[in-house]
Write a structure and sequence with these properties.
The chain is built from 6 helices and no strands. It is mostly helical.
Amino acid sequence: MMWGNLSVILPVVLAALLLSCGIEDARQRTIADWKNAAIAALAPLWWWATGLALWPDVALQIGVASLAFGLFVGVFSIGQMGGGDVKLIGALALWFPWQPLLGLLMVMSMIGGVLTVIVAVERWWRKADGPVEVPYGVAIAIAGLMAVREPLLNQFT
C-alpha cells in the first residue's frame, strides 16, 4: 500500500465508523468505546497523511479537540448528553480544523434539535412515560459525514 493513499482511505474508514456509530446509537442508545477510540487513534495518521506540521498545526488540533471535549463534558455533567456522544465529539474534533469543526457542531445541533422533536412527538404519540432519550450520536454521525465529504471529494478535483 502506498502511504499517499491514506488521505483517501482514512476518510472512508472514518465515514464507515461514523455510520456504525449512528446506527448503533439509534438502535441501542449507546456508542461502543472501541469505535470512539478508533476514530481518535486514526486522527494522527490523518494529520500525517495531510501533512500537518507538529507545531503549530497538530498542537492546535489537540488544543481545539480538548476544548470541544471539555465543553461537552460540561454538557454531560448536567445530564444533557450521553458519555458516548461526548467521546465521539472529542474524537471527531481531532480530525477537523476549528472552522470546519464549528460548522460540524452547528449542523449537529440543528439535526439534534430536529431529532429531539421527532423523538418527543413519537413518545407523546405512544403516550410513553419516563425521560426522553435522544440518540444524539445519530446527529453527530450525520454532521460528521457531511464534514468528512470535503476531504473525500476534494481528492478528485
